[in-house]
Amino acid sequence: MSIDIGMSDAARKSSADALKTLLGETYALYVKTHGYHWNVTGPRFNSLHNLFMTQYTELWQALDVIAERIRALGHFAPGSSGEMTEHATIKPDNGVPDAEDMLKNLAAGHEAVSRAAKYGITIAEKNADPVSVDLFTQRAQISEKTAWMLRASV
Q1: Residue 94: what pLDDT?
Q2: Can you say whether the dihedral through the CA atoms of 95, 154, 27, 60 is positive or negative?
Q3: Any residues with CB less than 8 A from the CB of 148 and at least 6 apart, and which?
Q4: For residue 59, how far is the Cα from the chain centroid?
Q5: Belongs to which family (predicted)?
Q6: Per CATH, is 9-152 categorized as 3.30.70.360?
Q7: Of 7, 115, 132, 147, whose CA is between 20 and 30 Å from 91?
Q8: What would the pLDDT profile of 106-148 be if each residue is shown by its tens digit?
């Protein structure tokens, strides 16, 4: 069945590819945040444990929104962790950092998500894809606010 949403096949593919990059960064940050939730220690354990839970829950929900937009554009969303992280610049940790480094690492991760979202905005604008522009804009806004809050906690 053909897709007629006012975008060419090439434009839909280009937007979907930018969304796959955002999906990869978001997934890598989700995994890192969830791991930190499990492993944080120290005098701020309870507050950081709860903060990380709030953040990984938001990221988990974002994954679904991003993947569904890829599908709406007529492309398949990556279905494995390997496929998702193949486009991510956010790398897993080797070992368990201390609480301060966790905060710094997560702030940097949210900045990477924001960069991917802003890159996606430029692509989606070229493709006359305002729906994806809106999604990218929302993700950039959330990531930048979260990065600021994490930086303020160090």
Answers
A1: 86
A2: positive
A3: none
A4: 7
A5: Belongs to the Dps family.
A6: no
A7: 132
A8: 999 999 999 999 999 999 999 999 999 999 999 999 999 999 9
